[in-house]
Specification:
The chain is of the alpha+beta class and about 300 residues long. About 40% of the residues lie in helices and about 25% in strands. It has seven helices and eleven strands. Strands 1, 3, 4, 6, 9 and 11 form a six-stranded antiparallel β-sheet that branches. A five-stranded antiparallel β-sheet has the order 2-5-10-7-8. It starts with a helix and ends with a strand.
Length: about 300
Amino acid sequence: MSLCICLLLFADLGKSPSLLYDSIINLGHVPLFAVVAGMTLWVLDRQKWVHTDIKKYLWAFVLSAVLALATEIIQHFTPERSFQVRDIVNDLIGAGVFLVAAYQYRRGLQVEKRVLLCSTALCLMLFSCLPVVVAAADEMRSRRDFPLLGSFETRWEMERWKSEESSFRRVSMYATDGNLSLETVLSPGLYPGITMDYPPRNWRGYHSLTCDAFLEGSDPLPLTVRINDLAHNEEYEDRYNRTFVLKPGQNSLNIDLSDVEHAPKGRVMEMKNISILCLFSYNLKEKRTVYIDNIRLKHSN
């Protein structure tokens, strides 16, 4: 059992095929740490186990919390893994739900206390399921809007994006599709930019990728677009990279998907399995602000 738990905590499951899949995997921390809490309680008192006193229950929760924190710290130093606060929250929910449920077993608690404990456990479970519900709703929205990849009209789709040496927020300025655009503030750094980690995967049958970008300031800005598939080996030669020079004001980027398909050296990119769309600047010396909107795939005219 301990070996199975270690494998589930530290095994590299590879690149997630979708945000929904990733959310479901993260939700797996809840039942996993329910088992961890149960095992911890059993180790603390093998004779009585669920019949033990409340101090043992508190110790079981504390030790489960320590293990949750320790595993995330270890993952921070593990290749392809990272420290995730959400995972710790799910770990604590899993441990808490088990301990709250188990504590009631064959105890003569008042009805009011039982209702309170059961309601607490139910609320914790519903809270842990919320990211899955949000991801499912965003998956439906994404399929409905495709071939539109990014318009930033809903908060849900922001879960698909992350920033590196930069920050972003939805604003009402310079929108070219709908009412909102993505204000991206690029900080001085080596690779400041934004990444769409969960784009709709299948780009087959489309001719080009387009994007609108409004650049603040009076100087041009080189902006690189990176695209790779699930088979990407993390080498520079195995992905699409092209640098566009944005002029101050409104810009429109147009990328021929045939160039993307044939960008990897020695192979053809799997256009049905696109995994990352990244926009970044290289070796930026000063802070710049770009407004991104209307990222979409288009058929040939």
